[in-house]
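Q: Structure tokens for this one, please.
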Amino acid sequence: MPNVGPLELAIVLIIALVVFGPKRLPELGKSLGRGIREFKGSINGETDDEPEPPAELEKKTETEAEDEPVVHDRG
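A: Here is the predicted structure, written as tokens:
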């Protein structure tokens, strides 16, 4: 099996950039890294004790922010 060199990695990254676009690429990398970390942890029997952030602290998307009612105080 041939080795994967820097030229092959660059070609794969360019194709990924064209297919997914520059906005989604960091998000995909983060998800891939998290998945690999979880896979390694499950193989080694390690657990991730880092707590998840509360749901209300997560960043809301634009559509979620638009769906919320606007309250005006007229007092």
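A few notes: DSSP finds three helices and no strands in the chain. Residues 25-44 form the longest helix (20 residues).
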